[in-house]
Amino acid sequence: MSSERTVHVPVMVHEVLEQLQLQPGLTIMDGTVGAGGHSQKILQQMDSTSRLIGLDRDAAMLARSAQVVQGEQVILRESSYARLEPILDELGIEYIDRVLLDLGLSSDQLADTSRGFGFETAGPLDMRFDVSQGMPAAELFRTANEETLEKIFRDYGEEPEARRLAQEIVTCRRRGQPIGTAADLKQLVERLIPVDRHRSHPATRIFQALRIAVNGELDELETFLHKILPSRLRPGGRVLVITFHSLEDRLVKQAFRETTLWENLTRKPIVATPSEVRWNPRSRSAKLRVAVRKA
Ligand SMILES: C[S@@+](CC[C@H](N)C(=O)[O-])C[C@H]1O[C@@H](n2cnc3c(N)ncnc32)[C@H](O)[C@@H]1O
User: Fold this and answer.
1) Residues 211-270 pLDDT 10s
2) Based on C-alpha coordinates, what's the Rg of the chain?
3) d(CA 115, CA 124)
4) 28 phi and psi, to 5 degrees?
5) Are 240 and 264 in contact (CB under 8 A)?
6) N or C: the chain end with fewer CB closer than 10 Å?
7) Residue with the nearest Cα to atom 2 of ligand 1?
8) Residues lining ligand 1, judged by CB closer than 6 Å?
C-alpha cells in the first residue's frame, strides 16, 4: 500500500501549526503520524534544535510517513500512542513538549480494499490498525455472542437497530453464512436499516462502531489522556487532539476539565473553516481541542 499515492488530506493544518506554538529546542510527538501530512508541515516549521517523534499503530501507514517525514531530527516508531512510555525510556527522553493526536482513520486506510475499513470496498473484514495483534472484525463476528455485538453497535455506533443487527449476524453464522467481508456487512445493514439519501449511509456508523471495538480505540485514548500525558508531558507543554465523533470528543473534553492538571484553551473546540470544509469534506466533523499542562 505504501507505494501508492497518498489520498489523505490532513485537516486544519493552519490551526494545528498555530496552536502548537513551536519554538526552539522542543520534543514534539505526532502520535498518529499516518501519511505524515501534519508532520511534514511541523518539520518544515521546527528549528534545528527540535526533534519530532512520529508514531503509528499501522505499519503500512508508518511506511508511508517514512517517505515524506525524514531527517536526523525525526524518530519514527510503529506503536500505539498509548504505549509511548517504553519508547521515551528507550530514547532517554523524560518529557515531551508538544503532542498532536489526529484520531481515527486515514483516507489511505479507507481506500485500501484489503483491510475492510470502508463499506464501499469488498475486502475481508479485518479493521485492525495493527494486523499483528488482536482479532479481525470477521473473527469477532464468528465468535462474539449476541449481547456483545449489540453492545458494540449501541455503545460505539449509537445505533437504534443494534439488537436486530446483532441477532442477524448470529443467525447468518448459525446458517453457515458468516458475515466475513465489508460487502456482506453493508448488504446486511441495508436489509435492516432504511437508507435515507439525505443522511449519511447507516453502514457509516456500523463500520465505525466495529472499528472502535476491534482496536479498543476509546481505551487507548483514555489511557493516554489519564495515565501517559500527566506523567510524560512537560509542565507548560501543549496537547492538541483532533476528534471525528462525539464519543472521542467527550473523553477529551472531560479530561481537559481536570483543572488541577490542565489549562483548557478550547472551551469550545476549534473547527474547520467553511472554505476548508468545501475542499476537504472530511474536515466537516473534525474538532480540535487544546490544553496546556499546568506546572
Ligand atoms: C486521521 S489519520 C492521521 C493522519 C495524519 N495526521 C496525516 O496528516 O497524514 C489517523 C492515524 O492514526 C493511526 N492510529 C489510530 N489509532 C492509533 C493509536 N492508538 N496509536 C497510534 N496510531 C494510531 C491510524 O493508523 C492512522 O494512520
Assistant:
1) 999 999 999 999 999 999 999 999 999 999 999 999 999 999 999 999 999 999 999 999
2) 20
3) 6
4) -110, 135
5) no
6) C
7) 106
8) 8, 10, 31-32, 34-38, 55-58, 61, 80-82, 102, 104, 106, 129, 220
